[in-house]
C-alpha cells in the first residue's frame, strides 16, 4: 500500500530571497539533522542571466534503524538524490528527491516548493508532499514502513525550526536583507553592483525597524500579544499551518496530511461548497484518521443531510409548542474549557407523553436542531476564546428517573436518536456529566450503551446521589457561578422544568404516522437503484423549444454514466411483469426503464449530449437548453470498466475497482426541474454541468442570485 503525505502551507513572514539564503546554509550538511551525514554536488547549471540555478546533490543519510535490519540489508547509509530548481525571476524553488538505495524494493518520492505569498510579496510559502511504496524488503516491509514514517514526520517538525535557526544566524551576522534578482541589463558595471551591495548593507540596519512596524518581524507567524490575529490566506484555498493550529488544534504531521488529502478529494468531487474543516476533522477523528473509512461515512452523512434538508432546519423548522413547554433541555453558558453547555433534565421529562403527543420523528428532528445549534455555538466560542472548540458538554440530571422512562416505544425512540446522532455528528460530544443517577439507571444504561461508540462512552462521567458535589465533581468542570440553581448553584437556569404532558394532547397512531411521513418526505430528491444492464430513466416532456432542463444528483454508491436522449414519440409506460420487467423496486430506490429494447439509437431516439462518467461520492449539477419539443429521457447507467486498449484483458486497477461495487448495483439521489427560457436567470449560451457541494456546513453559505451553473467549474459545456 502506498503511503502518502501532504503538508499544510507554512508561511514565513520573510522575503523569498532571505529564506533562500537561510535554506542554502543546510548544505553540505546540517548539524540540526543528525541523520543528514553529508552531501555532494553531482550536477549544476546556471543560466547566463543568473535567474535559473539548478543543482543536483547526492545526500548521505544515517537512518535510525535497528542494527540487525541494517545488517540484513547490507548497508550502513542510505543515499538520496535531490534536485533543486531555483527560479529567481519567478521567485520559486522546487525541490525533488528520490531514494537511490534499494530503489528496486522501496520507492520514495518527495516534492517541496517555496513560493511567494500571493497576498504579500514579502512573505514566503512552503509546501511539501511525499509518497512511500514498499514493494519488498526481506520480509520486514511493515517494520521499514514504520521506521520510514517515523523518520519522515520527525524531520517535518524540524523543517520549520531549521529555517528559523539559520534566519537567526543570518541576523546575528547582520544580514537581514537580500536584494532581489534583477536582469543584467539593469546593473551592467561592477561599480553599480558594488553600489547595490553597499546600499543593501545600509538597508540591513534600517529595514528591521520598518519591517517591524509593518508586521514583518523576525519570528515566523509570531503574535507576542497573544491576541487572535487574522489567519493568513493561501493560494487555491489551501490550508496553512497557522490556521490549523488556531482553529483546528495541534495535529501531528500525519493527521494534518489526512485532513488536507480528504479536503482535496472533496474539492475535486464536490465543486463549490464543501463541509467546514472542523466537520471534516470530526469524521477523521471518529475513524482514527483512516481516510477511506472517514470518506465513506462522511459521504453517507452529506447525502443524508441533503436528502432531509438538515442544513436548513434552524431556519425553516419551528418546534411544536409541546416541545417548547415540556422538553426539559436547553443551552446554559459554557464549561471551564469553553465548550457550550447543554443541560437536560431527563428525570423531569415525560418521554412517554412526548412520544404519544409528537411521535418519534418530531423528537428526532428536535434533537437534530439541538445538534445544529451546538455546531454554531462551537464556532462562536472558538472566536470568543481564541482556541479551537469543536465539541460541547452535556449535563444530564436524572433525578426523578423511574420505570416510566423505560416505556418500550420511548426507549426505541431514544435508540433511534442515538443511532442518527452517532452517524452524523461524530466527535461533537466533549463530555457527558450524568448526575443523581437512581437505582433504575443501570437498567437504562444496559439498554442504550451497546449503541454508543467506544470513544463516546469514555467521555461519560456518572455520579450517584450527591457525589457530584464532592471532590472530582461538578466544580472540576463547570465554574461555580454558572452551576444551575436546581443543582444547588446560584445561577438561574432557563431550561423548562418538564412535567407530565396532558393526555388531551395525545394523538392516535394514524395521526402520528401521517405527521412522521410529512416530516421526512419534505424533500425534493428521489432515490433510484441502477443495476448492470438495468439503467434508471426518467421522462421529461417538452412543449416549448428552448426550455431549460436542470438536474442535481448525487452518486451514493458505485460509478454511473449519465446520458440525455431525445425522442419525437413517447416511450411506452414501464411494464411491471415479474420476469424481465422494466420496473424494479428495491429498498434503495426505484429502477425504471423507458427506452424499449426494440428502439434503435439514431432512428427512434437520439443522444443530445456526450455521456458523463460520474464516480461514487460525486455531486453533479447541470442544465440543458432544449432545441426541439418532444420527449427527453435522462438516464443513469451502470459504468463498466473498459478493458485495456492494448489487450482484451482488464487492468488490475479496473478489476479492483469493479469488485468494490457489490452485486453490480449503484445508487443515485436526484432532482430535476424544467424552467421556461424566459425564467432562467443564467446565460443561455454558457449553461454548464458541474460537480458541486451541497452542505450548509460549508464556510461559504451565501447563494448568488445568478444561476449557479453559469459560475461553477464545468465538466462539459452545452451549446
Automatic annotation (TrEMBL):
GO terms for molecular function: RIG-I binding. InterPro entries: CRAL-TRIO_dom, CRAL-TRIO_dom_sf, CRAL/TRIO_N_dom, CRAL/TRIO_N_dom_sf, GOLD_dom, GOLD_dom_sf, PRELI/MSF1_dom, SEC14/CRAL-TRIO_domain. Residues 521-674 form the GOLD domain. It is found in: Cytoplasm; Golgi apparatus. Its main location: cytoplasm. Residues 319-495 form the CRAL-TRIO domain. Pfam families: CRAL_TRIO, CRAL_TRIO_N, PRELI. Residues 214-235 are annotated as: Disordered. One of its GO terms (biological process) is negative regulation of RIG-I signaling pathway. Residues 3-175 form the PRELI/MSF1 domain. It comes from the Eukaryota. GO terms for cellular component: cytosol; Golgi apparatus. Keywords: Cytoplasm, Golgi apparatus, Immunity, Innate immunity, Phosphoprotein, Signal transduction inhibitor. May play a role in innate immunity by inhibiting the antiviral RIG-I signaling pathway. In this pathway, functions as a negative regulator of RIGI, the cytoplasmic sensor of viral nucleic acids. Prevents the interaction of RIGI with MAVS/IPS1, an important step in signal propagation. May also regulate the SLC18A3 and SLC5A7 cholinergic transporters. Interacts with RIGI (via tandem CARD domain); the interaction is direct. Interacts (via GOLD domain) with SLC18A3; the interaction is direct. Interacts with SLC5A7 (via GOLD domain); the interaction is direct. This is SEC14-like protein 1. The lineage of its organism: Eukaryota, Metazoa, Chordata, Craniata, Vertebrata.
Amino acid at each position: 500500500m502506498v503511503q502518502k503525505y501532504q503538508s499544510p502551507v507554512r508561511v514565513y513572514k520573510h522575503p523569498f530571497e532571505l529564506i533562500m539564503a537561510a535554506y542554502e546554509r543546510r548544505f553540505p550538511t546540517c548539524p540540526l539533522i543528525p541523520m543528514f551525514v553529508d552531501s555532494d554536488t553531482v550536477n549544476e547549471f546556471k543560466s547566463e542571466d543568473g535567474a535559473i540555478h539548478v543543482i543536483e546533490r547526492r545526500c548521505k543519510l544515517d537512518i535510525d534503524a535497528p542494527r540487525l535490519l541494517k545488517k540484513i540489508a547490507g548497508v550502513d547509509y542510505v543515499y538520496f538524490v535531490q534536485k533543486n530548481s531555483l527560479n529567481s525571476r519567478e521567485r520559486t524553488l522546487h525541490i525533488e528527491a528520490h531514494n537511490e538505495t534499494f530503489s528496486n524494493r522501496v520507492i520514495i518520492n518527495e516534492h517541496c516548493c517555496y513560493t511567494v505569498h500571493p497576498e504579500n510579496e514579502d512573505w514566503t510559502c512552503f509546501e511539501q508532499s511525499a509518497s512511500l511504496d514498499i514493494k519488498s524488503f526481506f520480509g520486514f516491509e511493515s517494520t521499514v514502513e514504520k521506521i520510514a514514517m517515523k523518520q519522515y514526520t520527525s524531520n517535518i517538525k524540524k523543517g520549520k525550526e531549521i529555517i528559523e535557526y539559520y534566519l537567526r544566524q543570518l541576523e546575528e551576522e547582520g544580514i537581514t536583507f537580500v536584494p532581489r534578482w534583477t536582469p543584467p541589463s539593469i546593473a551592467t558595471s561592477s561599480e553599480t553592483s558594488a553600489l547595490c551591495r553597499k546600499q543593501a548593507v545600509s538597508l540591513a540596519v534600517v529595514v528591521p525597524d520598518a519591517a517591524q512596524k509593518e508586521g514583518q518581524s523576525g519570528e515566523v507567524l509570531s503574535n507576542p500579544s497573544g491576541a487572535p490575529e487574522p489567519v493568513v490566506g493561501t493560494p487555491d484555498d489551501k490550508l496553512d499551518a497557522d490556521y490549523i493550529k488556531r482553529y483546528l488544534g495541534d495535529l501531528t504531521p500525519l493527521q494534518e496530511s489526512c485532513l488536507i488529502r480528504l479536503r482535496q478529494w472533496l474539492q475535486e468531487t464536490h465543486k463549490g461548497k464543501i463541509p467546514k474543516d472542523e466537520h471534516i476533522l470530526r469524521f477523521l477523528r471518529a475513524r482514527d484518521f483512516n481516510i477511506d473509512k472517514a470518506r465513506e461515512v462522511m459521504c453517507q452523512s452529506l447525502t443524508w443531510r441533503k436528502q432531509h434538508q438538515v442544513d436548513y432546519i434552524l431556519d425553516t423548522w419551528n418546534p411544536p409548542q409541546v416541545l417548547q413547554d415540556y422538553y426539559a433541555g436547553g443551552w446554559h453558558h459554557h464549561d471551564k474549557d469553553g465548550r457550550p453547555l447543554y443541560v437536560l433534565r431527563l428525570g423531569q421529562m415525560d418521554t412517554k407523553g412526548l412520544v404519544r403527543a409528537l411521535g418519534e420523528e418530531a423528537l428526532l428532528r428536535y434533537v437534530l436542531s439541538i445538534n445544529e445549534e451546538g455546531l454554531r455555538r462551537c464556532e462562536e466560542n472558538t472566536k470568543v476564546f481564541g482556541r479551537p472548540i469543536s465539541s460541547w458538554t452535556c449535563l444530564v440530571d436524572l433525578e426523578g428517573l423511574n420505570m416510566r422512562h423505560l416505556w418500550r416505544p420511548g426507549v426505541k425512540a431514544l435508540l433511534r436518536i442515538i443511532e442518527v446522532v452517532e452517524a452524523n455528528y461524530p466527535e461533537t460530544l466533549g463530555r457527558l456529566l450524568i448526575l443523581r443517577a437512581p437505582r433504575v439507571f443501570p437498567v437504562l444504561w444496559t439498554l442504550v450503551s451497546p449503541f454508543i461508540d467506544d470513544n463516546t462512552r469514555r467521555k461519560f462521567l456518572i455520579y450517584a446521589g450527591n457525589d457530584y458535589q464532592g471532590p472530582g465533581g461538578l466544580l472540576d468542570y463547570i465554574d461555580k457561578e454558572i452551576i444551575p440553581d436546581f443543582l444547588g448553584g446560584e445561577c438561574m437556569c432557563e431550561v423548562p422544568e418538564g412535567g407530565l404532558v396532558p393526555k388531551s394532547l395525545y394523538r392516535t397512531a394514524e395521526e402520528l404516522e401521517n405527521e412522521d411521513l410529512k416530516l421526512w418526505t419534505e424533500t425534493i430528491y428521489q432515490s433510484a437503484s441502477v443495476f448492470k444492464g438495468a439503467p434508471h430513466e426518467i421522462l421529461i416532456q417538452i412543449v416549448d423549444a428552448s426550455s431549460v432542463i436542470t438536474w442535481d444528483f448525487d452518486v451514493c454508491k458505485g460509478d454511473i454514466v449519465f446520458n440525455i436522449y431525445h425522442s419525437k414519440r413517447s416511450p411506452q409506460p414501464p411494464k411491471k411483469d415479474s420476469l424481465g420487467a422494466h420496473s424494479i423496486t428495491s429498498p434503495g430506490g426505484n429502477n425504471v426503464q423507458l427506452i424499449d429494447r426494440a428502439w434503435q439509437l439514431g432512428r427512434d431516439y437520439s443522444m443530445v449530449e456526450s455521456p458523463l462518467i460520474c464516480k461514487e461520492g460525486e455531486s453533479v449539477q447541470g442544465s440543458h437548453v432544449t432545441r426541439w419539443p418532444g420527449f427527453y429521457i435522462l438516464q443513469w447507467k451502470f459504468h463498466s470498466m473498459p478493458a485495456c486498449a492494448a489487450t482484451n484483458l482488464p487492468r488490475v486497477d479496473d478489476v479492483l475497482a469493479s469488485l468494490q461495487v457489490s452485486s453490480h448495483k449503484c445508487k443515485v439521489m436526484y432532482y430535476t426541474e424544467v424552467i421556461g427560457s424566459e425564467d432562467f436567470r443564467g446565460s443561455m449560451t454558457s449553461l454548464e454541468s458541474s460537480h458541486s457541494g451541497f452542505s450548509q456546513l460549508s464556510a461559504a453559505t451565501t447563494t448568488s442570485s445568478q444561476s449557479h451553473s453559469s459560475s461553477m467549474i464545468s465538466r462539459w459545456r452545452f451549446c
